[in-house]
Design goal:
Number of domains: 2
CATH architecture of the largest domain: Alpha-Beta Barrel
CATH superfamily of the largest domain: MutM-like, N-terminal
CATH topology of the largest domain: N-terminal domain of MutM-like DNA repair proteins
Distance between the termini: 27 Å
Radius of gyration: 20 Å
Order of helices and strands: HEHEEEEHEEEHHHHEE
Number of strands: 10
DNA sequence: AGATGATCCTGTATGC
DNA sequence: TGCATACAGGATCATC
């Protein structure tokens, strides 16, 4: 579920809380979370200081002392949530109220109402539990068990995100670069966008949104896009991701940031999840089809 | 080489 | 109400 904007929002919400924190211990429940033997994983992390929290594509990356790195991938339903020490309240949400995104009924979230603890976390789905010095805890929760964790030493071992394409909001993601990735390929352009080697962090929601913004049909063979269309697509990807980050990501049901706060961008989606509703540009009903085995939303008139 | 389909899981929504 | 089926924000692997 979480794509770049959601992972970035988790990162921003947790970075102030975790910077400088020490991991006293880690409980690993279940063997599926990491390829490493749980005892090895635990021994590597125990006692480490968290120097910073970064992101690469949809990977959250912890920089630990001794050049150790920890990466987490939330996949579809993963959540990483901070639980403050007993008796303490959660820190205030990061980024303030979500502009225009909350209806009146949801107002309690916008005016700073805080749950005492991250709600909706079920112990049987909590696969990693980091105990921090001072009594706070960091919980990796994932009902579908798709989420994964990796550790490695920077500069010695390949990170799990080696091979990802450029960061879409960075300088390396040029129209030229995107054009080369699409050139000569007969696969649907949407399938190529979902391939993390093309660009890192675009998933099903924002692929549909970007293709709608650019006015490009998701089934178009990637290699058939002209230079102008490639430029439009690059701009659309960057625009929609920047806006979604500002809106703190899209929450349908599961997604929450690191403090348990839902994202506010769902109300700004133009096509995703809006089958049957009028296209914001031309009024034609939004269609839902399947492209590259993924549910795909588009305007049949604006996108040809 | 490159594309497609099955698969990993659980929860929820929909239809009969 | 109960049951079956489809589908879900991701990614990998086997197969064609």
């Amino acid at each position: 579920m979480p794509e770049l904007p959601e992972v970035e929002t988790v990162r921003r919400s947790l970075a102030p809380v975790l910077a400088g924190a020490r991991i006293e211990d880690v409980a690993v429940r279940g063997r599926h979370v990491t390829d490493e033997p749980p005892e090895v994983f635990r021994a590597r992390l125990r006692g480490r200081r968290i120097e910073g929290l970064g992101r690469r594509g949809k990977f959250l990356v912890f920089r630990l002392d001794g050049r150790l790195r920890l990466a987490l991938h939330l996949r579809m339903t993963g959540r990483l949530v901070y639980e403050p020490p007993e008796g303490e309240r959660l820190p205030p949400p990061v980024g303030g109220a979500t502009p225009g995104a909350l209806s009146a009924g949801e107002g309690r979230l916008a005016v700073g109402w805080r749950p005492e603890a991250p709600f909706d976390l079920r112990p049987e789905h909590t696969h990693l539990e980091f105990r921090l010095a001072g009594g706070g805890r960091l919980l990796f929760h994932d009902m579908r068990k798709f989420g994964r964790a990796w550790t490695w030493v920077a500069g010695r071992t390949r990170p799990p995100y080696a091979g990802l394409g450029p960061e879409p909001l960075g300088r390396a993601f040029t129209a030229d670069r995107l054009g080369r990735s699409l050139a000569g390929r007969r696969a649907p352009v949407k399938a190529v966008l979902l391939d993390q080697r093309t660009v890192a962090g675009v998933g099903n929601i924002y692929a549909d949104e970007a293709l709608w913004l650019a006015g490009i049909h998701p089934s178009r063979p990637a290699g058939s896009l002209g230079p102008d269309e490639v430029r439009r697509l690059r701009r659309a990807i960057r625009l929609v991701l920047r806006r979604a980050v500002r809106g703190r990501g899209t929450t349908f049901r599961d997604y929450r940031d690191g403090l348990g706060e839902p994202g506010g961008f769902a109300a700004h989606l133009r096509v995703y999840g809006r089958a049957g509703s009028p296209c914001p540009r031309c009024g034609t009903p939004i269609a839902k089809t399947k492209v590259a085995q993924r549910g795909t939303h588009l305007c049949p008139r604006c996108q040809r």
